[in-house]
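Box 3.1 A note on notation
Throughout this textbook, protein chains are presented in two layers. The first layer is the amino acid sequence; the second is a token string describing backbone geometry. Keep the layers aligned when reading.
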Amino acid sequence: MPSPPHHRARQALVRRLAEVRRRSPDGATVTGHHNSNHIVSLGQPLAFLLGMGSGRVLAKFRTPFTTVEVVPRIWRRESEVLRAVSKQLSEVPRCLVDFEEWSLHAYLPGRVLSEVVQEGPIGSWRLAALADFFARVASVPEYDLPQRPADWPQNGDSSGFLRWLGRFAEQRVYQCNRPRFGELFDAVGVPRDAVDRFLRSVPELSPRPFALLHTDVHRANVVVIPDGDGERLSVIDWELALYGDPLHDLATHLVRMGYDKTEQELMIRMWADAMRSAGHGDMTVDMDRDLEWYLGFEYVQSVFPDVMRAALALPDDPGEQDLRLAAGQVCRAIHRAREPLALVDGPLGEEAGVEALRQWHRADRAEWVGSTEELERMEGLERHGC
């Protein structure tokens, strides 16, 4: 049913006012992995229409980047996910209005955890808060979530879910990018059957109920908010949310947070305890065995974007230091995937990595220079963290 004329007129007015504020030279612009956020006050007319009270209230005017897909995104409108999430997690910033090409979000004052603790231990209090976060996310009802793709695995089919992730990594990341990066993948020792090789080694996983997954909880997506004499945490950026085995969410978190061994083990225990306390004990079934396979998959699938990102970060005329820095990143990615891929050759050496990158860069500049569309897509990949 079409919207009433007065509703359409109000929507048009909201959009016009939002466009004016979005283009304001005031405020600050923060570039994330997936989007650009212009933070500025709403102004009184727009605040009134959105029911936000004072026009001095800050908001985020968010514009998504065009980027190479390196991780799945099954829901194109983050606002639909946030609508479901906000019912269970009131601290998550709401989407105030979605214009499809860009959106307007509530602003959360604070600092991202990557600015507070760039690396190293984050402390047991924060670990407990994050474990509680995962348990509350698992409580978001399935019926509140947007529709999944037609080929999505059935609820509880953990093995089918991991295979779906594997197909995405193989078809949408590796094969789609092989025309440009194939020779580099080969030169640094990425097996052509990397994903299939890993999946063949995985035993049948235990069935676990599916739940909403954030899939990208790392230090730059956790906001530390002052709260009296203490602090509280809020997790932002839900673009990559999925519906599947909760162990996948835990695995991506463990890898991307860069925990040391002590905090990783503590996080695993706290996650399991929080899940059971929230009534989700069936989501922890056989996690001691199956979590390792999800961790292995995360190392395998991340080889492709990690290698591409290191190569793309090279300047037009890379010096020896540039090449060695990129080679170190490539060597680290290959090293992390050695065990899950059962690689038998010796580890990739820095000199071999440098030479592979040098040869790729020379050939790539000759072939791809001047391709504006490809440049924009690859610049998006450079920004994307995974």
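The chain has 13 helices and ten strands. The mean pLDDT is 91.
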